[in-house]
């Protein structure tokens, strides 16, 4: 297949470049407005009980769950006549707006839950109807007319709709800043690695094709399903990072073949049948890891799979088709414009040969004392991973926004100044309940719910209940809890607990355990978190089996060994556990919060983050695994000497992997400069995972473990060996006799 690919690219290189240019131009046009079609939610399971409760509220009740909160501040108190008059006027005005329902204010209902303990703040809550996109558009139209000064009142805007809008706007700004940081630094590193401005531009071109192509694919996907706005961040990171990986590997091999005396066309052929095959295997392993997120029903996770699979496949296709065509057109001019000659002369900056010698010395040192190096590396990774044992999980809320964000400030005031959490109400929805049952059974049920720890009160069609007692009989205000036609009702449980705390999750489970006189669905923010965690727990084993199983099959086809795939999975998992431990220590426990952008410490990690990071980081780790193993396997196929192959593989691939990891880490750190905390976690966490994998795992653990295993590295049962002989891939021809490497036994001096 790769020989045919080589013939294709060498036969019509200029035609391929013209088609690539047309593809990029069409992708720019198609994907130009993709950001406006992306969503800010998607962290909940649409089939969960909480989602069913939300759907019933949306379908049958005018109010539903509030997603808009106006925080009104009066320096002289919200109970003064002027403040009360202005508050009622604003509530009445909001109730008259299109697509706004269920308006409730402190001055209308006199509910203590809508007034701060010091009397300086009050709330107006409401629901903006429609889809997320429609609600966002409505809010953008309304906000300028309500935000700011209104007589004695100062108004700020919060609620889920405002949080979502600010997340989307901040994410777009963050992405622009990340690209502005990453692109020039990427180009600079590539110039230092390739020592040629011409060669350095080639991976950047591949990356830009991958990014614009993925934007176009996301634009098409939004016509069929929701896609998260955060998918664009992963597109940029992987587009540049993988393009550099693949570009480095192919250009490095092409230069080797040129230096070996081959003409450009023959060098392209050899490059594609060796490095090209490795790039294809790498792309498959990364795509498989990312596709595991499709098993989860949350479109937040699925969006990263859409973006990741698209960018990986487009980057690989561009690296295998466009890059060889560019190399063939350039020929030996690929080394033109050496911008580092003066810098190397003054600073002693090493070129590729010196980098290879360094990695050879590292490889020789590791295989000389494999036990010491292995135990030291494992101990360090285990120590880093220990904090993960204390991880707690929550849902993404306003605190992912920077502290200066309006929604963050509004909800912080609610947390600090209000005894209840009106924006964290839990909904208990009953469908198909007639009037007679409502009168006789809803009251006692509401009384039982109001007696649960952490519940301030329960509002229902039967009245308001507190501490197990009726405190306000049913009146006109309670009509909102009955659907038109009287066949459905809901109860509003107002807690005093943090919206997404472990205590609020426990309350959800307690509510679901209280015997109900009719079938009910419990919804709300805390209920969504409980359902999200349950869904992740249920689906995670299937995702792991699919991701690990397919990856092991691919590595077996590449190596012919069952030991090598197992080793790769174990070492990658160990490395990722260390990364998760570092995330807990920094973001959950709050260490280094000032140094990393003064993010808000919530005491938990987003529930979806470990799944997302595991799938992405596992794929990237396998990417580097394939790069290193391909050169080791190639040398082993040629010589049959495992130790020589390990040292040779590190010498040939160590510099490439390190440079690729450095570039990808820079891109991920640029993503980590985001003002949104969950994107900061993702960017910095993945950057740490990439560096740890490239340095500790590839540079130390892989050669140490392979040295200790010796020939067992290549073991497979007889039937599988025959299967690999028929369907697998191996490099080189018959083995050549080689002098023994100067490392005979572990512990002997070289």
How is this structure best summarized?
This protein is of the alpha+beta class and 750 residues long.
Main sheet specs: 6 strands, antiparallel
Class of secondary structure makeup: alpha+beta
Task: Classify the beta-strand content into a percent band.
Answer: 5-15%
Lateral arrangement of strands in the main beta sheet: 10-9-8-11-7-12
Head-to-tail CA distance between termini? 42 Å
Report the total helices: 23
Average pLDDT works out at 84
Relative helix content: 55-70%
| Spatial shape | elongated
Query: Can you tell me the residue ranges where pLDDT is under 50 for at least 5 consecutive residues?
Result: 346-350, 731-750
- How many E strands? 13
Overview of the molecule:
- This protein has 750 residues and is of the alpha+beta class.
- It is 63% helix and 9% strand.
- It is built from 23 helices and 13 strands.
- The strands form 3 sheets. The chain has a 6-stranded antiparallel β-sheet with strand order 10-9-8-11-7-12, sandwiched between helices. Strands 2-3-1-5-4 form a 5-stranded antiparallel β-sheet, sandwiched between helices.
- Helix 10 packs antiparallel against helix 20 and helix 19 packs antiparallel against helix 22.
- The longest helix is centred in the first third of the chain and has 35 residues.
- It is elongated.
- The relative contact order is 0.12.
- The C terminus is likely disordered.
């Amino acid at each position: 297949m790769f020989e045919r690919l080589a013939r294709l690219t060498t036969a019509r290189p200029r035609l391929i470049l013209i088609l690539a240019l047309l593809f990029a131009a069409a992708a720019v046009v198609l994907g130009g407005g993709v950001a406006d079609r992306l969503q800010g939610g998607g962290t909940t399971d649409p089939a969960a009980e909480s989602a069913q409760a939300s759907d019933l509220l949306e379908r049958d009740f005018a109010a539903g769950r509030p997603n808009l909160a106006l925080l009104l501040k009066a320096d002289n108190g919200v109970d003064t006549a002027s403040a009360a008059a202005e508050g009622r006027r604003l509530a009445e005005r909001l109730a008259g707006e299109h697509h706004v329902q269920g308006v409730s204010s402190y001055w209308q209902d006199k509910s203590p839950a809508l007034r701060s303990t010091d009397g300086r703040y009050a709330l107006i809550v409401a629901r903006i109807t429609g889809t997320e996109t429609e609600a966002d558009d409505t809010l953008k139209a309304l906000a300028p007319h309500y935000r700011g000064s209104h007589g004695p009142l100062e108004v700020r805007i919060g609620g889920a709709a405002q949080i979502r809008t600010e997340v989307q706007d901040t994410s777009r700004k963050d992405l622009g800043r990340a690209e502005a940081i990453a692109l020039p630094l990427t180009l600079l590193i590539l110039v230092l690695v390739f020592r040629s401005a011409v060669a350095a531009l080639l991976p950047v071109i591949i990356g830009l094709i991958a990014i614009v192509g993925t934007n176009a694919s996301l634009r098409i996907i939004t016509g069929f399903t929701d896609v998260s706005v955060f998918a664009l961040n992963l597109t940029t990171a992987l587009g540049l990072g993988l393009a550099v990986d693949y570009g480095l590997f192919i250009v490095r091999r092409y230069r080797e073949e040129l230096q070996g005396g081959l003409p450009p066309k023959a060098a392209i052929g050899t490059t594609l049948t060796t490095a090209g095959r490795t790039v294809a295997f790498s792309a498959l392993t990364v795509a498989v890891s990312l596709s595991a997120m499709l098993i989860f029903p949350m479109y937040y996770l699925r969006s990263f799979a859409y973006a990741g699979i698209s960018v990986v496949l487009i980057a690989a296709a561009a690296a295998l088709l466009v890059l060889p065509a560019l190399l063939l057109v350039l020929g030996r001019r690929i080394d033109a414009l050496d911008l580092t000659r003066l810098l190397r002369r003054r600073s002693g900056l090493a070129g590729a040969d010196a980098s290879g010698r360094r990695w050879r010395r590292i490889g020789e040192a590791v295989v000389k004392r494999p036990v010491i190096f292995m135990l030291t590396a494992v101990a360090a990774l285990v120590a880093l991973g220990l904090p993960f044992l204390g991880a707690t999980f929550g849902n993404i809320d306003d605190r992912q926004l920077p502290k200066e964000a309006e929604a963050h400030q509004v909800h912080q005031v609610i947390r600090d100044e209000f005894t209840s959490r009106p924006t964290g109400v839990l909904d208990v929805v009953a469908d198909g309940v007639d009037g007679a049952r409502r009168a006789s059974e809803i009251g006692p049920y509401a009384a039982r719910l109001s007696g649960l720890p952490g519940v301030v009160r329960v509002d229902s069609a039967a009245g308001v209940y507190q501490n197990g007692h009726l405190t306000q009989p049913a009146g006109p205000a309670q009509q909102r809890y009955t659907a038109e036609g009287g066949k459905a009702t809901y109860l509003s449980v107002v807690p005093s607990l943090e919206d997404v705390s472990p205590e609020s999750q426990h309350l959800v489970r307690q509510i679901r355990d209280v015997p109900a006189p009719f079938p009910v669905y419990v919804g709300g923010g805390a209920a969504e978190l409980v359902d999200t965690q349950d869904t992740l727990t249920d689906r995670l084993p299937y995702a792991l089996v699919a991701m690990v199983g397919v990856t092991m099959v691919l590595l077996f086809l590449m190596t012919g060994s069952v030991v090598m795939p197992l080793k790769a999975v174990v070492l990658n998992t160990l490395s990722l556990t260390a990364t998760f431990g570092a995330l807990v220590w920094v973001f959950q426990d709050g260490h280094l919060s000032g140094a990393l952008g003064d993010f808000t410490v919530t005491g938990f990690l987003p529930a979806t983050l470990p799944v997302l990071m595991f799938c992405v980081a596992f794929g990237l780790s396998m990417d580097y695994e394939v790069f290193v193993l391909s050169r080791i396997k190639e040398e082993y196929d040629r010589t049959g000497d495992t130790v020589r192959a390990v040292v040779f593989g590190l010498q040939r691939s160590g510099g490439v992997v390190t440079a690729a990891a450095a570039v990808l880490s820079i891109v991920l750190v640029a993503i980590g400069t985001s003002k949104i905390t969950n994107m900061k976690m993702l960017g910095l966490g993945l950057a740490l995972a990439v560096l740890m994998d490239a340095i500790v795992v590839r540079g130390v653990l892989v050669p140490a473990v392979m040295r200790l295993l010796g020939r067992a590295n290549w073991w497979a049962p007889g039937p599988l060996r025959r299967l690999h002989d028929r369907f697998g891939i191996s490099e080189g021809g018959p083995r050549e006799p080689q002098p023994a490497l100067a490392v005979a036994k572990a512990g002997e001096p070289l």
